[in-house]
Amino acid sequence: MRQSAARRHAPVLAAAVLPLLLFGATACQSAPEGAALAPAAAPAVPVDDGAPGAEEPPARTGAKDARVGDPVRVHGQQAGHHLQVVLNAYVDPAVSIEKNYAPAAGKRWVAASMSFVNVGGASYGALGRMWAHDSAGQRHPVVPTGELTTGKPLVFDSLAVGERAEGWVVFEVPENARIERLQYQDANIQANSGGGFWAV
């Protein structure tokens, strides 16, 4: 969705991009959930420094959430910046390959296998942010974690035209939370544009 030039170039809150993100799970579904920091591992999708649910989720304008396997086109702020994003799989709970590595007490990890393809006409830089939204209206950011039983973490520095990045991202959520959807938002776009939602 396009915005006026003034709003499009307004300052945006963006988290720093970290190198690695991993997480594992015991069940694979068509629905979402996720995570924490393991030795020498950090998330490719930036960690949101705000508390879960600290910011209101962007309002939806009747657009239908995508499902597992549905491609979502994300348009960056700069001309030629376009990603095709797909939620490949969702696991709840997600489990680390490190036996002594687990979520904090009262929490669980949920994880999403994501793929990003640069379908634009220019190199694509840092990824934006992701959240898991629960039924209580809270949203939970990606957290750094160790490698999961389901696969390796997402690693993303930049993508040349036509290149692809794929891997797992993890969210740490309350043990009893019911996750309903996942959200991705471009690092350089204001709320209500440059992102996508997936029902889980």
Polypeptide structure, described:
There is one protein chain. Helices cover 2% and strands 32% of the residues. The longest helix is centred in the N-terminal third of the chain and has 4 residues, at 5-8. It starts with a helix and ends with a strand. Strands 1, 2, 3, 4, 5, 6, 7, 8 and 9 form a nine-stranded antiparallel β-sheet that branches. It has a single domain (15-53, 68-200), classed as Immunoglobulin-like (Sandwich). It has 200 residues and is mainly β. 46% of the residues are buried.
As for the CATH topology, it is Immunoglobulin-like
Low-confidence stretches: 1-43, 46-62
Task: Report, as a whole number of angstroms, the end-to-end distance.
Answer: 23 Å
Report the order of strands and helices.
HEEEEEEEEE
**Proportion of residues in helical segments:** under 10%
Can you tell me the number of structural domains? 1
Strand segment count: 9
- Content of β-strand: 25-35%
Overall geometric form? globular
Summarize the structure.
With 200 residues, the chain is mainly β.
Keywords, please?
200 residues; mainly beta; Immunoglobulin-like; 9-stranded antiparallel beta sheet; 1 helix; 2% helix; disordered N terminus
